[in-house]
Amino acid sequence: MIINGLRFISAPLYLFKKFFEGIATEHLLGEGIQLEHLNDERLGRVLDKEYDAGTTEIFIRVALSAADRF
Asked: Deepest in the core among 10, 26, 27, 66, taking most CB within 10 A?
C-alpha cells in the first residue's frame, strides 16, 4: 500500500492482492495474515481508518518509530 501510494508502482486497488501472490505474507506482515485477507475492500477500510485518525499524525509516529530503530 505504501509503495503504491508513493507511486513506485501504479496499480489500481483491485490488484492489491496480486502484489502479494508468491510472498510469505505471514512472515512479512505478521502471524495469521493470509493472502485472502489482502483485498481491495479491506484496503479501502484501512485507508478510511487512516484518514479518520489523521494521516499526518500516523506519518509522524511511523517516522519517530523508525528514527528510534535506526
From this structure: 26
